[in-house]
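Tokens as discussed.
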């Protein structure tokens, strides 16, 4: 197939491009030339889809499908979808499960209420505070121009794997590789649901090749690891002597430790988050999604980091992680706490 990938140089797009080339497709990428490098073997077009003039390079070109892995601003996606609706008959958009409004129950499926996105909303891609609303606006921009039969909306859950451009798993791997006693949050049995970027890529390309339109939550059908297993996998992958020290959430709050931002992937228990790691992936599974064992994602992410890989976060993303000074203070406070 002749595939056009918008972007294609960072994480999800990069993986899709590399896999598409491996499948023998002709791949054209379209980006500004600011992030990463185009993968060898693509035809690289330069342009900026934040303006009408920026899409000129696409005029007069025809493709079998467009894949848009990184759209964050509805107006940019709308412009792209409008420009290509006549020249590329299928559009695959990588969205996010953040489009759903509520996380209070497990089993959120594709029919759950989404944020009210607006297809022509413009703005700064670095403004990530309204990610869910804006990604929904991007979905609508594609749906309005292609119709649901000719577009794939792949609502990915939290994505991990080589070339990660967010940084949660890389932070844990890097911390654990340093060894020693590691502050570990909450209940080690808390279940997590994480998807490998290569499984997202395989699913998207399979659907594109089959021209199978529809909306899918691209997540493992069941939570596929726990916080405890994740840290154990990190210890195994890095060969470290690290020993997790599990602390209850109340203690961590009393020490001013920030969930998620300081200890990545730690989302405290609560009624509003009960379904966060238990989204339904049944629809994608029925459509062919297969997910690898999570330990493989941890191992391969470490291999990537060890071979010089660096997390290149997107503009607007906040850095993750607890400082080692704060971690030592909290560990000391834990050791000094009065016996229960
Ligand atoms: N990580 C997660 O846990 C997670 C979870 C759910 C969903 N997602 C979604 O997955 C996607 C990840 O995308 P990615 O960053 O990995 O995609 P990518 O395609 O690998 O990288 C983003 C690309 O967009 C290009 N780009 C940015 N602004 C542009 C513009 N104005 N015109 C043309 N090209 C532009 C960048 O290149 P230039 O800068 O050179 O133009 C870059 O090549 C996002 O949509 C995210 O919402 C992520």
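Sequence:
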């Amino acid at each position: 197939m002749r595939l056009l990938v918008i972007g294609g140089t960072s994480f999800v797009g990069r993986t899709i491009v590399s896999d598409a080339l491996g499948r023998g497709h002709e791949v054209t990428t379209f980006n500004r030339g600011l992030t990463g490098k185009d993968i060898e073997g693509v035809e690289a077009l330069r342009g900026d889809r934040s303006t009408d003039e920026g899409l000129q390079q696409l005029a007069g070109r025809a493709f079998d499908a467009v894949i848009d892995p990184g759209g964050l601003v509805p107006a940019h996606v709308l412009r792209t979808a409008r420009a290509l609706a006549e020249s590329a008959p299928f559009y695959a958009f990588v969205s996010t499960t953040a489009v759903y409004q509520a996380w209070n129950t497990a089993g959120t499926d594709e029919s759950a209420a989404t944020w009210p996105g607006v297809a022509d909303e413009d703005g700064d891609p670095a403004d990530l505070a309204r990610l869910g609303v804006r990604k929904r606006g991007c979905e609508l921009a594609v749906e309005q121009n292609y119709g649901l039969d000719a577009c794939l909306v792949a609502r990915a859950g939290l994505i991990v794997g080589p070339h990660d451009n967010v940084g949660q798993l890389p932070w844990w791997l890097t911390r654990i590789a340093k060894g020693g006693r590691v502050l570990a949050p909450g209940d080690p049995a808390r279940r997590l649901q994480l998807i490998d970027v290569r499984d997202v890529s395989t699913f998207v390309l399979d659907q594109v090749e089959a021209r199978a339109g529809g909306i899918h939550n691209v997540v493992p059908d069941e939570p596929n690891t726990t916080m405890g297993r994740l840290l154990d996998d990190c210890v195994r992958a890095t060969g470290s002597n690290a020993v997790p020290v599990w602390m209850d959430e109340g203690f961590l709050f009393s020490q001013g430790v920030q969930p998620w931002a300081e200890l990545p992937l730690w989302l405290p228990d609560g009624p509003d988050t009960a379904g966060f790691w238990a989204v339904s992936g049944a629809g994608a599974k029925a459509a062919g999604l297969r997910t690898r064992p999570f330990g493989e994602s941890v191992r391969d992410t470490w291999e990537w980091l060890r071979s010089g890989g660096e997390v290149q976060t997107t503009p607007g993303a906040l850095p993750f992680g607890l400082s080692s000074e704060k971690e030592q203070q909290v560990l000391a406070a834990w050791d000094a706490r009065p016996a229960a």
